[in-house]
Amino acid sequence: MINSLIAVIKEEEKELNELLILLDKQYKLIINKDVFGMESVVEEIKLKNKAVAESEVNRRKVLGKESIKDIVLSSKNEELENSYRRIQKLLNQMILQKDTNDLLIKQQLSFTNKLLNLINPKRDIPIYNSYGNIRR
Q1: pTM of this prediction?
Q2: Which GO terms describe its biological process (predicted)?
Q3: Alpha-carbon distance 67 to 51, whole Å?
Q4: What are the two backbone dihedrals, phi and then psi, of residue 41, each rounded to the nearest 5 degrees?
């Protein structure tokens, strides 16, 4: 079981590395403001997410209902522990990259919306409610 778990974890690590590369590519496209490139990388990320999910299902099939953390700690297998640590490190890098990409996209959308409001301001007449506040 340990050898099959190591093989599944290595496959999962390969898929996660490829997904991290795609997230880095997305970051560069966001920085360069390449909208059409960002659309194409989204499809690639979706496909890679599917592959990662399949490797996760394979890992769960090998483990059954047991926790991977418990198995890694109880196995005393150095290769399994190292693989598990690499996966954890990789997941943390991916979370950081995804959050960075999300933040950059939100900042650019906010900036674009502010520019649009400056170019074409709202022309409706403000209406006061019974408390004297302006309704929006």
Answers
A1: 0.80
A2: bacterial-type flagellum assembly
A3: 21
A4: -70, -25
